[in-house]
Amino acid sequence: MPGKAELLELMVERVAGAQPLPAARAEWRAGLRDMAAADLAAYRAHPWLLQESTSRTVFGPNVLTRYEATLALLDGHGLAAIDVVGCVAAVESYTRGAASAVVEAEQAPAHTGSSDDDWWERQVPFLEERMNGRFPLFAALEEAGAFAVSGTALPYTLQRALDRFSFGLDLLLDSIGARIAASRP
Fold first, then answer.
1. For range 139-163, the mean pLDDT
2. Rounded to 5 degrees, what are φ and ψ at 60?
3. For the whole prediction, is pTM greater than 0.85?
4. Domains and CATH numbers, the chain
5. Mutual orientation of helices 61-74 and 28-45 as an angle, nearest 10°?
């Protein structure tokens, strides 16, 4: 008799089926970026996905179709088979981790009962007291804009999480690009 595990597998399969696939023959970097963005959107729309195990993958047709499309982005670039699978896994793992921070930032106001602005307003006195010249590198980086975000339409913590997702994804894709370049004769 089907139970909770089977229901969750069907739910994962349904979410996977609703996600866009990269265009056939998409450039690998753009395709992986699109796949990561689609996965991030799915985690944001369905936060329960972050609680589902990735060590025992759902092998439904939609999940497998997405995986095949993602693998195809790196096919033919000279990578060893294990590297193709490893690069896809790295992007998936990175996206899941970053999605956790994004979802936490989105849910924080409802869980705490206070907005980002209210929370930061309460933190400023503590930060000023604790900093008091004791953390010069932190202070210099703050002064240089290291903690600025790309926009102000969203709450700071959410925008910061989204900015960090983009930055980290670029680093990861640069690494994959370097691996592809190194694999060419």
1. 95
2. -80, 165
3. yes
4. 4-183 (1.10.357.10)
5. 150
